[in-house]
Specification:
This protein has 305 residues and is α+β, with helices and mostly antiparallel strands. Helix content is 19%, strand content 25%. It is built from 3 helices and 11 strands; from the N terminus they run αββαββββαβββββ. A hairpin with a 7-residue loop joins strand 8 and strand 9.
């Protein structure tokens, strides 16, 4: 009985080794065929995503693979080895889909940290502002969207009422949303009421936002991601809330008000001032006064030569 068990165990080991050998030979042959096809068609072998990945996904053989790519259009930063792409516990810094090339700009360094700063373009900053259910567009602002930032604050001046005299300005236009609260995944499109929004801005825009937080209330206005038109800013005052009243800000000067339903102006006559009285001319020769009744007349007398 024991001898029979040993024979069965030996047969199983042999069959297992044969299966491993056949599998290695098969997959090795597939890899060789792919490399041969790549050489014949002038293709390169680069690393691509083998499954959809979100921000912070660890890279490894389970989600990376080699794929043929035209040799003349290999993207900058592409990897030619899965081991190199996953070395050091690297993670994805941007969402990637199946078949997308894995580039050095889309993954972290060898330390494996998925930091937001590594995902910022040069010259840009990440700045967070407080939002509410209303100022955050009801929770529909998500990472990857673009927004305008509006500041509502009291009108400057000693004679204004800070509780009623308000003004609204657009202080940042078409800012990219990097994160909502602590979520930076662009695939997460579900509406969520958040407390903070992190925006991609310039240094000047970050200064405006920091000052705006102290001066008044910031609100977000959701844009179409394809709408990059900027510059149509206007200051809105309480008197501009009526229908037809628009406040325009020309590009070269101060704001001017235009009222669509304004009545035509009437010409008002102006009072002309009376001409100033001229002083009488003093005679240059002797004069003689003649009185006729109650009227006196003065005559000039010529001197004889």
């Amino acid at each position: 009985m024991q001898r029979r068990n040993l024979i069965l165990l030996g047969v199983a080991l042999v069959l297992g080794l044969v299966a491993v050998f056949i599998a290695n030979a098969y997959f090795g042959g597939v890899e060789e065929r792919q490399e041969r096809i790549a050489q014949e068609q002038q293709l390169s072998r680069i690393v691509v995503a083998n499954q959809d990945m979100s921000f912070g996904t660890p890279l490894g053989e389970q989600n990376l693979r080699l794929a043929n790519w035209p040799a003349g259009s290999v993207p900058v930063g592409a990897f030619t080895s899965v081991e190199d792409a996953a070395r050091g516990g690297r993670v994805a810094l941007r969402p990637m889909v199946v078949g997308e090339p894995v580039l050095a700009s889309k993954i972290s360094g060898v330390d494996g940290r998925a930091t937001l700063s590594a995902n910022l373009p040069k010259g840009k900053l990440a700045f967070s502002i407080p939002i509410t259910e209303v100022s955050g567009v009801g929770g529909f602002v998500r990472p990857g969207d673009r927004v305008d930032v509006l500041l509502t604050r009291p009108i400057p001046g000693e004679s204004t009422n800070s509780s009623t005299d308000k003004m609204t300005d657009v202080i940042v236009e078409a800012a990219a949303v990097l994160g909502i609260d602590q979520v930076a995944d662009e695939k997460n499109t579900q509406a969520v009421v958040a407390k903070t929004a992190t925006l991609e801005v310039t240094t000047i825009e970050a200064q405006k936002l920091a000052l705006g937080i102290q001066l008044g209330t910031l609100s977000l206005a959701l844009r179409n991601v394809a709408d990059g038109q900027t510059g149509a800013q206007a200051t809105v005052l309480p008197r501009n809330l009526s229908a037809g009243s628009v406040f325009l800000r020309p590009s070269g000067g101060a704001a001017t008000r235009r009222t669509a339903s304004a009545a035509p102006r009437r010409s008002v006559p102006t009072r002309q001032s009376a001409p100033a009285a001229t002083a009488p001319t003093r005679p240059t020769s002797p004069t003689m006064t003649i009185i006729r009744g109650s009227e006196a007349s003065e005559y000039e007398v010529s001197r004889g030569v």
